TrEMBL record:
Keywords: Oxidoreductase
Keyword Oxidoreductase part of the UniProt annotation: yes
Protein name: FAD-dependent oxidoreductase
InterPro entries recorded: FAD-dep_OxRdtase (IPR006076), FAD/NAD-bd_sf (IPR036188)
Gene3D superfamilies: D-Amino Acid Oxidase, subunit A, domain 2, FAD/NAD(P)-binding domain
Coiled-coil ranges from the UniProt annotation: none
Pfam families: DAO
Residue ranges of domain FAD dependent oxidoreductase in the record: 20-363
Lineage: Bacteria, Bacillati, Actinomycetota, Actinomycetes, Kitasatosporales
Keyword Transit peptide applies: no
Superkingdom classification of source: Bacteria
Amino acid sequence: MSQAGTTASSSGGDLPARADVVVVGAGITGASVAHHLARRGVSVVVIEQSPRSGAGATGRSGGMVRAFDPDTAIAELALPSLAAYRDAGRWASGQAPLHAVGAVTAADRAQESAFREAAGQINGALRTSAHVVAEREEAAGVRLAGGVALVEPEAGWVAPAEVTADWLVQARADGAVVRHGVRVLEVEERGGRPAVLTDAGVISAGAVVAAVGPWAADPVRGLRPASPVRSRSIQVSIVERRPPAPPHATFVDLRTGLYAKPVGTDRTLIGMPHLVWDAPFDAQPDPAHAQATVSALTAHFPWLTTAAHLSTVRATDAYGPPGGGGPAAGLLEGTGVPHVWSVRGWNGGGVKTAPEAGRRIAEACVADAFCEAA
Ligand SMILES: Cc1cc2nc3c(=O)[nH]c(=O)nc-3n(C[C@H](O)[C@H](O)[C@H](O)COP(=O)(O)OP(=O)(O)OC[C@H]3O[C@@H](n4cnc5c(N)ncnc54)[C@H](O)[C@@H]3O)c2cc1C
């Protein structure tokens, strides 16, 4: 693979004139892809429109991570991703980013045997102590409200912006060029390869990986994935958790979609599906939904009835059908422009899947040579 050139482009200062791969978007997905590509010797340029990383869904995310997911395609990514988040050796900081507060997944009693099977698989792969709790009112500080629970004591949450920053540090150390405050305006074909038109100049690329998150629903020309992607609202609130409220694990209830995670020692993040489609990324918080979220979660955290509400954050993520047919086992989707690929599969779970998704995309890029130098 070639090294990223450093020839100045028309108005771009030190924006490279060419690269094997241009990654558009420095959220957690783009950062993972860039890190894994650069580690394999691919010349990478990352273009991010915001002056800082984590400006999109990544910066507002709760960052809950666990190995289990009812969607087997996601679980297949989530399990090795949890292993990566637990492994201090993979991080520039020298510290594993995982806060292992535990993870509780609640479901209808009919899921008990599926949970037991999943616990066995998780423990076999990760040497953990995942187990099923049935016939009990509570698990790891969470009232189960009649269901069964899969408890993963070694799972928990990560800070998505910190993970993103760490991967970008590693990518830079491996030769990648990361540019913030540069917006991709369009990607077009020139001589069979992509030309990335930005507001700071043009980059000739062997391939382009668009990791633009919710912006994939309404992307710039040349980055539109073949399958439809829609943005959907995600809203979370932070509430105060004072004694005697107990500490608790992260929590997802598959029956309702309700979720929660501890934030430090005295706060909790709570959320409930907010089924508002095609919402702008910066839509205002919905107070009625915030109130309904507290009410619904009181069944699991009775102390919420008197907890002080501190803040509400609203954002969106990109939702679409599972990938199929594209490279990297369907994680990439064609865009109609040769060698320009859109990353698939955020659907509200991009943090729990990012380590393995980025690794697979980079592996496929190198093995299949679909991102060779321009
Ligand atoms: C409130 C909330 C809570 C969440 N909680 C969880 C959770 O607990 N666990 C979990 O696994 N997932 C969670 N998610 C989902 C997860 O955060 C997302 O799936 C993930 O962050 C998506 O990352 P991304 O890199 O694909 O997108 P983004 O983080 O949105 O990054 C895309 C980047 O592309 C840039 N960009 C877009 N267009 C251009 C352009 N034309 N030129 C240059 N740059 C461009 C944007 O500025 C942005 O920085 C949550 C999401 C939200 C919003």
